[in-house]
Design goal:
It is a single chain. With 74 residues, the protein is mainly alpha-helical. α2 packs antiparallel against α4. The longest helix has 24 residues.
């Protein structure tokens, strides 16, 4: 039964480990910001970085851990 739930989640676009994937992607934001000249776009990049970290923080908080500490260890 559990196997079917996993396949259904994948079919619906839910990726196992997605929180960690987003954290890894957020580490690329500083590189992207180096290519940006406008302040508004820098602010937008910062918002995207924050949004990428939100799922992992929430997962950690729901498990009773400090989200910021968990993110530092990913």
């Amino acid at each position: 039964m559990r196997k079917n739930a996993t396949f259904a989640a994948i079919a619906e676009g839910i990726v196992p480990g997605g929180g960690a994937t987003f954290i890894h992607l957020s580490k690329k934001i500083p590189l992207i910001k180096k290519t940006i000249k406008h302040t508004d776009e820098h602010n937008g990049a910062d918002m995207v970085k924050k949004a990428l970290m939100a799922p992992a923080k929430l997962i950690a908080a729901n498990a009773g851990f400090d989200g910021d500490a968990v993110i530092k260890n990913i």
